[in-house]
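RECORD TYPE: inverse folding
INPUT: structure tokens
STRUCTURE:
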């Protein structure tokens, strides 16, 4: 099996390019995920070799019509963004009927297909909110099972530009490829790269797992959707003016967790076949069980029962025969019964695409791609932790921790409390403000936050570090002192820096606490990394136009490469402005600074000593990895 024309027609013999007939399911000698990965590697290797041999120009057609071999899509020029857009491009056959919980497949060839106007986003995947506690969760935007579409945004007359592929977040249960508008990021970087976004299967449709699912299909179907979308970009982006050898995969939260998993895919054996660089914004790493462990298996049968199938035994064929609406309600039901702030389904260790626990593989530095930019927010945990009506005492906190870390023993949970000591500063009447990260006055993330006090604040920092901040450290470590690889790390601290706050800084829209100086600096760091492989920003950008000395030397102009033995990072923050209160429906009321007078306060900091030695706590959480497991 090979691809004989770069960016051309897919061979009918490629199992990535054709539907998987039921007879093949019965006849296969390896599982479906193994076949998918084998085909993926073979196709991309052939395509890479062909590209190296032919060195195509990779320029857009003036008509903006792109022929994928199975469809022809006409893009359009958007005068508001001054960019060319293609929306709703199908990259896979609909994963419905017999293709439910099967690997995604490129659409069947159709050389004579008519031209379709790519001027509307494709259907979103079925999705719903996380658990709101008390058995509540709600459906999201109207969705469909036929939802595997992608979108391309490119400068006019693009020729061999770098490419950023955006993987949306949402806990693997929410969101879509149109969630973020990539145009401002592209324009603020001088139209120097192309943007791609896509949908992937969510909830039970994308992450249902058990031994029976693996025996009959694939677990982590949503991740295989992502892999196929990345392969599509490799095979077709040249037609949009993109360089298939300069691809950065980027994402936030679950999207950043996905970046991490693609970095770990196939034991780090993919090299740069799928991507060259990774950009992970708050990498989400909950516990990651094996596909056939007790927790995913119990969810499988709870899902089956909620869908009207048996609650034990062989149920896969029954689930395949159910309507999509029934399955969506069943997925919602499992999420509603989950811990507050969580969805019901997320990635598992599957033995094929995700072969190991992330902490173990990151420690071994077995990663794909060559460069990584990773970051997180100063207050990641607040929106995931219940209010003081739920967490008031240490016993309340331990009970909540047992839900989020269900595999840890009582002794292990108490050891987490020991490295996050309670103090007079974190009493129920304690202070509420952003720390400076330097432990000034004894204030640090363990005991102080603008949105929580007492045991709730304690829990917030535990969740923030174990689930987002420390995975960012571990990812950066994996590319440090690793031949041919390098990484950089940042923290986004502009008050109130809750989970997802840096989305507005990267993509807009603007908010009162994010003036143009800080958003431009943040976007330039991303753009410089995507285009040139280094996030360092010019002195004038780091200082900001409102600075008294915009041209003065700034250390972010020489952003330190991450060194796990002496790690440094860039802290994006501001100073000045007017104190105001902001209401977040999940995090509550908190102070931030708005209006005139806000200036950049970007700095380079020591990652180990930051926030009263976060580096030590991250090492502690990594040692818990085998027990989490993650």
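DESIGNED SEQUENCE:
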């Amino acid at each position: 099996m090979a691809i004989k024309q770069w960016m051309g027609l897919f061979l009918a013999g490629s199992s990535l390019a054709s539907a998987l007939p039921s007879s093949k399911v019965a006849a296969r000698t390896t599982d479906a995920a193994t076949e998918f990965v084998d085909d993926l590697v073979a196709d991309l290797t052939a395509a890479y070799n062909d590209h190296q041999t032919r060195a195509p120009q990779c320029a857009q057609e003036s008509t903006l019509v792109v022929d994928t071999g199975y469809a022809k899509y006409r893009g359009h020029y958007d005068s508001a963004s001054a960019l060319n857009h293609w929306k709703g491009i199908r990259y896979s056959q609909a994963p419905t009927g017999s293709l439910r919980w099967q690997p995604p497949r490129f659409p069947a060839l159709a050389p004579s297909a008519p031209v379709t106007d790519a001027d509307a986003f494709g259907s979103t995947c079925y999705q719903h909110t996380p658990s709101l506690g008390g058995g509540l969760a709600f459906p999201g935007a109207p969705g469909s099972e036929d939802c595997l579409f992608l979108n391309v945004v490119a400068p006019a007359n693009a020729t061999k530009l770098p490419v950023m592929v955006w993987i949306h977040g949402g806990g693997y249960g929410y969101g879509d490829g149109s969630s973020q508008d990539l145009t401002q990021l592209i324009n603020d970087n001088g139209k120097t790269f192309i943007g791609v976004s896509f949908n992937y299967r969510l909830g039970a449709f994308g992450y249902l797992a058990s031994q029976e699912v693996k025996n009959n299909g694939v677990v982590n179907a949503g991740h295989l959707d992502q892999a196929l979308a990345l392969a599509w970009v490799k095979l077709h982006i040249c037609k949009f003016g993109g360089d298939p050898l300069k691809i950065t995969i980027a994402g936030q939260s679950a999207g950043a967790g996905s970046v991490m998993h693609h970095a770990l895919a196939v034991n780090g054996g993919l090299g740069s076949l799928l991507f060259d660089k990774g950009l992970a914004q708050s990498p989400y790493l909950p516990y990651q069980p094996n596909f056939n462990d007790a927790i995913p298996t119990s969810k499988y049968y709870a899902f089956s029962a909620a869908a009207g199938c048996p609650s034990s035994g062989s149920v896969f064929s029954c689930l395949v025969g159910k309507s999509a609406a029934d399955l969506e309600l069943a997925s919602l039901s499992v999420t509603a019964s989950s811990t507050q702030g969580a969805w019901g389904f997320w990635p598992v260790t599957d033995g094929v695409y995700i072969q190991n626990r992330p902490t173990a593989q990151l420690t071994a530095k077995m990663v794909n791609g060559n460069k990584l930019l990773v970051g997180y927010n100063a207050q990641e945990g607040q929106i995931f932790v219940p209010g003081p009506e739920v967490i008031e005492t240490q016993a309340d906190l331990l009970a909540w921790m047992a839900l989020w870390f269900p595999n840890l023993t009582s002794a292990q949970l108490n050891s987490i409390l020991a490295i996050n000591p309670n103090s007079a500063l974190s009493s129920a009447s304690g202070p509420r403000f952003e720390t400076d990260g330097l432990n000034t006055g004894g204030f640090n993330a363990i005991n102080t936050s603008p949105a929580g006090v007492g045991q709730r604040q304690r829990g917030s920092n535990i969740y923030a570090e174990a689930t987002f901040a420390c995975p960012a450290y571990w990812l950066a470590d994996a590319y440090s002192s690793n031949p041919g690889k390098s990484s950089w790390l940042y923290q986004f601290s502009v008050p109130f820096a809750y989970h997802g706050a840096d989305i507005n800084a990267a993509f807009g829209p603007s908010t009162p606490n994010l003036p143009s100086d800080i958003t431009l600096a943040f976007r330039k760091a991303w753009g410089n990394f995507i285009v040139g492989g280094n996030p360092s920003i010019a002195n004038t950008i780091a200082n900001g136009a409102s600075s008294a000395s915009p041209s003065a030397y700034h250390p972010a102009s020489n952003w330190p490469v991450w060194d796990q033995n002496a790690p440094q990072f860039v802290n994006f923050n501001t100073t000045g402005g007017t104190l105001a209160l902001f209401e977040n429906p999940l995090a509550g009321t908190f102070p931030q600074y708005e209006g005139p007078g806000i200036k950049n306060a970007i700095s380079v900091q020591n990652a180990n000593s930051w926030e009263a030695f976060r580096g030590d706590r991250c090492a502690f959480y990594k040692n818990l990895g085998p027990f989490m497991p993650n």
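NOTES: DSSP finds 18 helices and 18 strands in the chain.
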